[in-house]
Structures are given as structure tokens and as C-alpha cells.
Specification:
- There is one protein chain.
- This protein is α/β, with parallel strands linked by helices.
- Helices cover 29% and strands 17% of the residues.
- The protein has 5 helices and 8 strands, in the order βββαβααβαβαββ.
- The strands form 3 sheets. It has a 4-stranded parallel β-sheet with strand order 4-1-5-6.
- A hairpin with a 5-residue loop joins strand 7 and strand 8.
- Helix 1 runs parallel beside helix 5.
């Protein structure tokens, strides 16, 4: 069985949102980037924590997950954000550019329908800061149908923490597929 996808969001996960005082975590450093379609005269300022790359690579190198960007940054995730974190080029889900006024136009995260179609029944760990109870119910339904699904939701002002990746790794290791050999001995694949 293929490893579960590790779906990675950026805003609120790798780039924390400023708190009520306009501050970002002291662990993050400021970078100006120019996303596709923007002029170099109008960069976007982002705050990134360099060791996020190392922490993510510690999980990716296990081979227990297949990392995929799942963010409105789309191809700019690999082109702009990944290199600042020391990450290799990762594929991305080509999410649409919805014309919405909220992240939850139907009561759940706007990405979910696109992610569900893209996954096509594959197991997944999805790290995003913007899940609702309806997203958690969706994940529980997938899990109940035999499609392992874990949602990890960092605080959008603190971003991804090492404990989140410890949770991911423990969950994935605990979900390894077991098969019976003819001699009756269970082995992990």
C-alpha cells in the first residue's frame, strides 16, 4: 500500500498570522517574496521558521508519507516557500482560485471538496489551521470507511510545532498495513 499523502498548508501553518498586537513568533524570520502574477515592486512579506524544513524532512525521509503542498500558494509553494525552508521541490494540488468571502463558504474548509476529489480514496494526513467540525466529521467518515485520515490543526498564530510532526509520525507508524503471511506471521509492509 502506498504511503499516505502528507498535505501541507502554508498560511497559518508555516507562515503564522500576526497576533492581536501585530506580532509574529520570535522564532520566525522575515522574507520578501514575489508570487506569480505580482510585480517585483510589490513583494509579499512572510515570516518563516527555518527549522520547519528540517522537522518536515525528518518525517519525509522516513518514506512513511508522500508530501504534497495543499495551499493557495499553489506552485509558489515549491518555487518560493520551500527553498527558504530548505525543502526539495514538492508537487502541489492545483487548487482553484475561488471567489469567496470566507474560508468556510459551506461551513467547512473551501479546499476540502477539491482535496477529496484529488485524494480519490487515498489515505492522508492533512495539516491546516482552518478546519471546522464538519472537516473533522469528513475525516472521521473516511477513516470509518477504511481510508485512514488524520487532520492536524496548528494554532494559526503559532504555526506548526514539533509536537504536530511527532503526532503525524506516530499516527503513520501506527497505521502501517499488516498482512498475514502463509505461515501465519504478521509482517509490516
Amino acid at each position: 500500500m502506498r504511503p499516505p499523502y502528507l498535505l501541507l498548508d502554508i498560511d497559518g501553518v508555516l507562515i503564522p498570522f500576526p497576533d492581536e498586537h501585530g506580532s509574529t513568533p520570535a522564532t520566525h524570520t522575515c522574507h520578501d517574496v514575489v508570487p506569480a502574477g505580482r510585480s517585483a515592486d510589490s513583494p509579499v512579506t512572510v515570516w518563516l521558521r527555518r527549522d520547519h524544513g528540517r522537522l518536515l524532512m525528518d518525517v519525509i525521509r522516513t518514506g512513511l508519507v508522500t508530501p504534497i503542498w495543499c495551499t493557495s500558494w499553489r506552485q509558489d509553494a515549491t518555487r518560493l516557500i520551500g527553498p527558504l525552508l530548505g525543502l526539495p521541490a514538492l508537487p502541489y494540488i492545483d487548487l482553484p482560485h475561488p471567489q469567496i468571502a470566507t474560508s468556510h463558504p459551506n461551513g467547512y474548509l473551501w479546499k476540502r471538496d477539491h482535496v477529496d476529489a484529488w485524494l480519490a480514496g487515498a489515505p492522508a494526513v492533512w495539516i491546516d489551521d482552518d478546519f471546522t467540525h464538519l472537516d473533522r466529521a469528513w475525516a472521521a467518515e473516511r477513516d470509518a470507511r477504511g481510508t485512514p485520515t488524520l487532520l492536524v490543526q496548528p494554532d494559526s498564530h503559532a504555526g506548526l510545532q514539533e509536537r504536530h510532526l511527532v503526532e503525524v509520525r506516530a499516527w503513520v507508524e501506527g497505521r502501517r498495513v499488516r498482512t498475514d503471511r502463509p505461515n501465519g506471521i504478521d509482517v509490516e509492509r
